[in-house]
Amino acid sequence: MQDKVSKEQLILESAEQEFFIKGFDGARTTSIAKRAGVTHAMLHYYYRTKEQLFERVIDKNVSLIIATMFSSLGKADMPFLDRLKVSISSHFDIVASNPLLPHFFLNEIISRPERYNMMQNKLETSAKEIFSKVQIEIDEQSKQGNIEWIDARMLFMSIVSLNLFPFIALPFAKRMMGDLLDNQDSFLEQRKAENIETIMRRLKKQ
Amino acid sequence: MQDKVSKEQLILESAEQEFFIKGFDGARTTSIAKRAGVTHAMLHYYYRTKEQLFERVIDKNVSLIIATMFSSLGKADMPFLDRLKVSISSHFDIVASNPLLPHFFLNEIISRPERYNMMQNKLETSAKEIFSKVQIEIDEQSKQGNIEWIDARMLFMSIVSLNLFPFIALPFAKRMMGDLLDNQDSFLEQRKAENIETIMRRLKKQ
Amino acid sequence: MQDKVSKEQLILESAEQEFFIKGFDGARTTSIAKRAGVTHAMLHYYYRTKEQLFERVIDKNVSLIIATMFSSLGKADMPFLDRLKVSISSHFDIVASNPLLPHFFLNEIISRPERYNMMQNKLETSAKEIFSKVQIEIDEQSKQGNIEWIDARMLFMSIVSLNLFPFIALPFAKRMMGDLLDNQDSFLEQRKAENIETIMRRLKKQ
Amino acid sequence: MQDKVSKEQLILESAEQEFFIKGFDGARTTSIAKRAGVTHAMLHYYYRTKEQLFERVIDKNVSLIIATMFSSLGKADMPFLDRLKVSISSHFDIVASNPLLPHFFLNEIISRPERYNMMQNKLETSAKEIFSKVQIEIDEQSKQGNIEWIDARMLFMSIVSLNLFPFIALPFAKRMMGDLLDNQDSFLEQRKAENIETIMRRLKKQ
DNA sequence: TATGAATGAGTCTTCATTCAT
DNA sequence: TATGAATGAAGACTCATTCAT
Question: What CATH code would you report for A59-203?
C-alpha cells in the first residue's frame, strides 16, 4: 500500500527535478522513470503524457510560484518599512528553499506563454491589487515625509530582481565569487541582508 | 564567393535566433536550415554537428556575454561614483540591445554546465581581477568617507541583478505591469534611471 | 451468482459490438471493458486473451453466420419456386436484422483466413450437401420444363450477392441513393422484393 | 536515379498491399517498410505519417474506385440493352483485375466515413447524374415496350451486388464451391455471363 | 471474483547525421 | 559546394496481459 502511493509521488518528484533542470524539451520520460525507479510505461500509466506530467509539476508549484512573487508585499499591520523588511526577507527565504524554481519558472513559462494564461490571469489580478494597495501606502508615507516616493511596480521589480537573480545565476557565479560562496549559508545571509539594505536605502528620506 | 561566405553566416544567424528562443534542446537543425534558406545537409556541411553549431553561436556571443556580465564595473578615468553611473548605464544599454542574451545564457549554462568550463575559466580570471581592482577603490573611497563600504562582489551582483533580471522577466512582466510597459522605450529609460538611483543610494554616505 | 453470469455475458456483448464495428485490430480490450462497465482485468479473467474473446464472439454468431449464408436454399415442402421465394425472403430478413454481421464476417475472414479453418470445414460440408440436394431439384424441375436450368452454386451466389451486398454497402450508399433510402424500412421491402423478382425471372422458363 | 524514383513508389505499392489486406488498423508501417525493402524511417521520410501514406493509397485508387462503381452505366451510342451488357461486362473485368479493391474500399471507407467526404461528394454527384440519365432511358424503353420498368438505382444496386460480392466473398467461397473454382478464369467467365444473364432477364419484357 | 498496479513488447514518429552524386 | 536520399538511434506512447492482494 504504502509503496504504491509513493510510486505515483516518486514519479512526480523525479519529473520535477528533471523538468526543473532540463526544461520540458530537454527532459526525457525514460530518464524521469529511471530516476523514480519505475518502468517507463508506469509513468504513462499514471500521467498519460509528458505534457500532462509537466502540467502536474506546474500545478504542484503554482501556489509556491505565486507566493514567490508576491509574499514580499502588502500584508498586515506593522509600520510600512518594517513590514517591507520582513516581506523581502521572507520572500528571499522562500526562494532560497526552492532555488531551482525561479529558473524553471522563467524559462519554461516564458517560452510557452500560451500554456499559462490561467496562471497569468491569476497573477495579473493579484499583482494589480497588491500594487495599488502598496502604492497608496507609498503615497501616504512619502507625503508624510517618511520615505522617498517610488512607483510600487518599480519597487517590486527591484526587490524581485535582487532576490531572484542570485539564484538564477548561482551555478554560474560559483566560480567567479571566490571565497564568498565557500560557505553558502553565510553567503545567503549576507545577500539577504544586502538586498534589504539596498531597498531600505532606496526608500530612505535624506 | 561572396555568396558562400554569407551562406555560412546566414546559418549562424538563424541558429542564433533559434537557439536564443528555443534553447539547445528545443532547437531543430532542420528549422535552422529552413530559416536560413539552405538545405539541411548544408548546415552539417558547414558546422558538422548541432553541438558545434551551438558552440559557434556561443563563441560569437561570448564577448558580448562577458560585457553583459562585466562592463558594469571599472573602466575609464572619472570620479568613482560618476564612473560607476556611466558603467551601470552602458551595461544596461548593452543588455537592452541584446535582450534575449541573458535568458539564453543563464538557461543553457544551468542545463549543461559542463560545456562552459573554458568560458568559465576566462570569466573567473577577468572577474577576480576586476573585483580586486574595484575593491581597492571602494576601500579607498570609503576610508575617505565618500561612500559607504561594500564588498565589490556584492555590489556587482546587485547591479547585474537589477540590470539583467527585468529583461529575463520582461515577457512575463508585461501582463502584470499595466500601463507601465505600454511604451517600452520610456519604461527602459525609467528602469535604467531607477537602477542607477538604487545603486547610488546604496553607496551614498549618510 | 446471477451477477457473475451476466458480467461475463456483458463483456461478450460489448466485445461483439466493438468487434463488429472496429474489427479485431481496431478493437481495444480496454474499450470493451469500459463498454461493459467492468474492469479491464476482469475481461482477461473471463476470456484470457483478446484472441479468445474474439473466438467466443465468432462462436456465438457462427450459426447466425451460417444462416446468413445458407438459409437461402432448400428447406420445407412447397413447390420449388415458392419455396425458393420464401427462402430468399427469410434469408433477407435474417441479414436485415443483423446488418453488421456480413461486413464483419467477410472482413475478418479476409484478413485472417487461417483462423477459420474449423468453421470453413463445417460450412464446406453443409454447403456441398445443400448444393447437391438443390441441384437435383433444379435438374428435375428444368427437365420438366418448369424452370430454366442453372448451376445451384451460381444460383446461390446470386442470391447471397443480392441479399448481402446492400447491407455491406448501406452506409456508403446512403449518400448516392437520394430519397430512395429516406425511409429505410420501405427501402428494405422494395429491395427484398426486387431480389426475389430478379431471381424468379432468372429461373422463369420463357 | 531509377532506383530512387522507384523507392518512393515501392513503398506506396507495399502500403497498398498491406492496407488492402489488413486495413488501416491492422497494417504496420514497419511491415510495409520491410515489404518494400526500405528502412522504416524511409517510409516516414517520404510519407510523413501512416495516415498520409494511407491517403496516398486512397488517392491512387480513387478514380479506379469510381470507375468500379459507375463504368457500368450510361455511356455512348448503342441500343440500351446492348450497352448495358457491355457495361456490366467491363465493370466485372475492372473488378476482376483489382479483386482486393472492393473489400478494401467497403471496409475502410465505410468504417471511417468522415475521411472520405470529398470522394463521397464526387461520387454523389456522378451517381445522381448517371441515375437520372439512365432512368430517362429506362422510362423510354419501357414505354416502348422493350423492357420491363425498373428504378435505375435498384438496377444499379443489383449489378454492383452481383459483380462485386463474388470478389469480396472469394477467399471464403473457395472451399465451398468445390470444382467450380478449380479453374478460376473459367469460373470468372461463367460468373460474368451469369450476372449479365440475370440482369438481362430481369429487364426482358415477357 | 475482483481490481489497481505493473510491465514488456511493440508502434509510430522525429531528428541529427551521413553519403552518393 | 550543394543536395536529395537514406538511416540509426532514440523518443513518446499504447496495449494486451499478468500479478499481488
Answer: 1.10.357.10
Secondary structure of residue A27 in the 3-state scheme: coil
Q: Taking CB atoms and an 8 Å limit, are B157 and A106 in contact across chains?
A: no
User: Which of chain A's residues 35-74 bind strand E, using a 7 Å CB cutoff?
Assistant: 38-42, 45
B37 touches strand F (CB under 7 A): no
CA–CA min distance B129, chain A (Å): 10
Asked if A1-48 and A59-203 have one fold, the answer is no
The length of chain B, given as a count of residues:
206
Rounded to the nearest angstrom, the minimum Cα separation between C5 and chain D is: 32
Does the distance separating the beta carbons of C169 and D106 come in below 8 Å? Answer: yes
**Is there contact between D4 and strand F, defined as CB under 7 Å from any strand atom?**
yes
For C19-77, what is the HEC assignment? Answer: HHHHHHHHCCHHHHHHHHCCCHHHHHHHHCCHHHHHHHHHHHHHHHHHHHHHCCCCCCC
Cβ atoms D172, C68 nearer than 8 A: no
Do residue B161 and residue A161 have CB atoms under 8 angstroms apart? yes
- Name chain A contacts of B110, Cβ cutoff 8 Å: 21, 103, 168, 171-172
* Residue from A122, A168, A188 whose CB has the most chain B CBs within 10 Å, to mutate: A168
Reading phi first (left if > 0) and then psi (alpha if -120 to 50, else beta), residue C178 is in left
Phi and psi at residue A41, to the nearest 5°: -65, -30
**Do C178 and D153 lie within an 8 Å CB cutoff?**
yes
Which residue has the closest alpha carbon to E19 C1'? Answer: B41
Rounded CA–C1' distance between A133 and F18, in angstroms: 61
Using CA atoms, how far residue B112 sits from A172, B51, B104, D180, in Å, is 11, 12, 12, 74
- What's the CA B11/C1' F5 distance, rounded, in angstroms? 22
Domain A1-48: CATH class, spelled out: mainly alpha
Distance CA D5, CA D7 (A): 6
Do A158 and B198 contact (CB within 8 A), yes or no?
yes
Does residue D44 approach strand E to less than 7 Å at its CB?
A: yes
Report the CATH number of the C61-203 domain: 1.10.357.10
Residue-wise pLDDT tens digits, A54-113: 999 988 988 887 777 776 565 667 899 999 999 999 999 999 999 999 888 888 877 777
B42 beta carbon to strand F: under 7 Å: yes
Residuewise pLDDT in 10s, chain D (206 residues):
344 457 899 999 999 999 999 999 999 999 999 999 999 999 999 999 999 999 999 988 888 877 777 765 656 678 999 999 999 999 999 999 999 998 888 888 777 777 777 777 877 888 888 899 999 999 999 999 999 999 999 999 999 999 999 999 887 788 888 888 888 899 999 999 999 999 999 999 98
Q: Residues B147-156: pLDDT tens digits?
A: 999 999 999 9
Alpha-carbon gap, residue B177 to A161, rounded angstroms: 15
Q: Letter for the amino acid at D52? A: Q
- Contact across the interface for A124 and B176, Cβ inside 8 Å: yes
A40 secondary structure, DSSP code: H
Per-domain residue ranges of chain A: 1-48, 59-203
Ordered alpha helix ranges (H), B27-49: 29-36, 40-47
Give dist(CA A189, CA A196) in Å, integer: 11
Q: What would the 3-class secondary structure string for chain C be?
A: CHHHHHHHHHHHHHHHHHHHHHHHHHCCHHHHHHHHCCCHHHHHHHHCCHHHHHHHHHHHHHHHHHHHHHCCCCCCCCCHHHHHHHHHHHHHHHHHHCCCHHHHHHHHHHHCHHHHHHHHHHHHHHHHHHHHHHHHHHHHHHHCCCECCCCHHHHHHHHHHHHHHHHHHHHHHCCCCHHHHCCHHHHHHHHHHHHHHHHHHHHECC
